[in-house]
Amino acid sequence: MTVLFGQLFTGISIGAVLLLIALGLALTFGQMNVINMAHGEFIMAGAYTTYVLQQSITGAGLSLVVALPVAFVVAGAMGVLLEVLLIRRLYARPLDTLLVTWGVSLMLQQLARDVFGSPNVQTRAPELLTGNVALPGGLTIANNRLFILALALAAVAALTLALRLTPLGRRIRAVVQNRDLAAVSGIATSRVDRTTFFLGSGLAGLAGVALTLLGPIGPTMGTNLIIDAFLVVVVGGIGQLKGSVIVAFALGVLQATGEYLTTLSVAKVIVFVAIVAFLQWRPQGLFTLRTRSLA
Amino acid sequence: MSLFRGRRILAGAMTLVAAAALTACGSKTTDEGGATGVTADVSGDTVKVGLLNSLSGTMAISEVTVRDSIMLAVEEINAAGGVLGKKIQPVGEDGASDWPTFAEKAEKLISEDRVAAVFGCWTSASRKAVKPVFEKNKALLFYPVQYEGLEQSPYIFYTGATTNQQIVPGLDYLKSQGAKSVYLVGSDYVFPRTANKIIKAYATANGMTVLGEDYAPLGSTEFGTIVNKVKSSGADAVFNTLNGDSNVAFFKEYKSAGLTAAAMPVVSVSIAEEEVKGIGTQYLEGQLTAWNYYQTTPGAANSKFVAAYKAKYGADKPTSDPMEAAYVGVHLWKAMVEKAGAFDVEKVRSASDGITFDAPEGLVTVDGKTQHIAKTARIGKIGADGLITEVWNSGKPVAPDPYLKTYPWASGLS
């Protein structure tokens, strides 16, 4: 029973990690339809930001708190730079965007290697986050995973509220639903694109900070995550956040269960087979956006 | 743009990623046949040796340190007058973490540069790729990394540990500490799977229980479930053959789950001083490693080696087991050549038996029959300063036994 709950929590926390890395992509790929292969490198940028901040801020807890907003801005700024310099010129040519951002991703990896060296770097986690909460019955819940779960849920809540309630959110939704109509209604679509890209990339930076608590910080950390992130958004349904949220947790629990009953590799196969079967049944993903746009 | 279009492009993206992964894994060894026994060019007043390490790609992080320590050995030998009166002229090649490239560069070093010996390779995959090249050309390779054993090429000298000099002593140590059960965690490729086969045979013969065995693909960084399984198994110890980035995620998860080195120690065979830096002592303090050499190994030879390495490459650079084995390889080759009185490969090979060297790890002796070397096995504990201190050693060098022929329990393995 303890193991069962332990595994359930592991599944939920895998889901939280998936959600955090996919959330930014749900904006840039889901809402704007830009395939940004460098999204993983924005996650890496967030992780390295944490590392750099720890060089000057001694308290591990304080530096983590400071790293969250700073990484958001750093990764967001990189996203805006990419949007302004390259992606904006390629909106009509999605295949070229794919190749160009793939190239940018390789360049950013090499940049990280040149600046920080190819070996992994380490950050110190605050003592509080390396411990765990012991529940009756021998069940323990790791604090760092609780933190990531809370961060993921907070990010989803903030993003949902921003999209629903703020004028900016309304403009983003308008552009997603019908770009031409939004433009003739007086919305500066290119500025909205830039802001959306800033938010999406910034969320990747946030994910990077969270991942320093779980895994390695190195030049290639982003590439290992990018496919999972795309899977979540595609299965969840493009253009909708709630699809990504549900799918992230569902895949997390499926992965954890499969892995417990079999092995890690077999669990991955199970997850992929489930995804393929699901997409055969619902090629548009879990939820789709109803739109009156003609495209 | 329709939603479907987005997905089709995404499929393109996945193909691209997959293709990149495939090119990295594809392996084809050059096999031209015909040419036999290219003799080394030793006519001038220098003798060329080949240095074959990955200076780029995923293995560069480890292999560059090996190249550095080979260069250190070459400089030391040249400063002391060279080999048979000839200065060593190193010819460096980049294996680029790509196994066919290793084979191609090995061929180039042997046939074009006509080197007297080659030092290098790290992964077993790269060694397997160059092995036929060296055997076809009857040229010499000195391989510096601990490996899974069960191999004995007449044209390779293995200066790292084979299984009975690293894994078996690791198990002996656990047994002596009273461990009755172990859990095996490893990366999913040839070395961990072979190592775990050996560990299971050992366990059966020594009254230990293997409570579980889990593999993660190389590069995997999600260890929630595996650590859950390890924890609920209640094993006395964990034997860890994970490689690379996975170690970072594994040890972070291990600590978060409340598992400690005191309650359930982890013995690792792929974490040396360099890797400790990348994982963080916060997560590793108190955990165990099995090697033949640590930066802290006592002795004058090691003090000299560490001081020379730091003076040349920087005070913050640690020395580790594979680096030391590579350094020892160059010195052993020099001693073999001098005993043979010639650079000729067959003469060097027949002179090799019994050659000794006062290495940083202590006295090592070449076993001419297996072309491995007798090394002292050492178990170390990772300290808060990131260095590893010895807690146990085998007392004397352990004779190499790559096929574990002297261990009755291993009879069904090879």
TrEMBL record, chain A:
Pfam families: BPD_transp_2. The keyword Magnesium does not apply. InterPro entries: ABC_transp_permease, ABC_UrtB_bac, BCAA_transport_permease. It comes from the Bacteria. The keyword Transmembrane helix applies. CDD domains: TM_PBP1_LivH_like. Its main location: membrane. The chain crosses the membrane at residues 6-27, 59-82, 146-163, 197-217, 229-254, 261-281. It is a multi-pass membrane protein. Keywords: Amino-acid transport, Cell membrane, Membrane, Transmembrane, Transmembrane helix, Transport. Belongs to the binding-protein-dependent transport system permease family. LivHM subfamily. This is Urea ABC transporter permease subunit UrtB.
UniProtKB/TrEMBL annotation, chain B:
PROSITE patterns: PROKAR_LIPOPROTEIN. Residues 1-20 form the signal peptide. Keywords: Signal. Pfam families: Peripla_BP_5. It comes from the Bacteria. SUPFAM superfamilies: Periplasmic binding protein-like I. InterPro entries: ABC_urea-bd_UrtA, Peripla_BP_I. NCBIfam families: urea_ABC_UrtA. PANTHER family: ALIPHATIC AMIDASE EXPRESSION-REGULATING PROTEIN, PTHR47628. This is Urea ABC transporter substrate-binding protein. It comes from Micromonospora trifolii. The lineage of its organism: Bacteria, Bacillati, Actinomycetota, Actinomycetes, Micromonosporales.
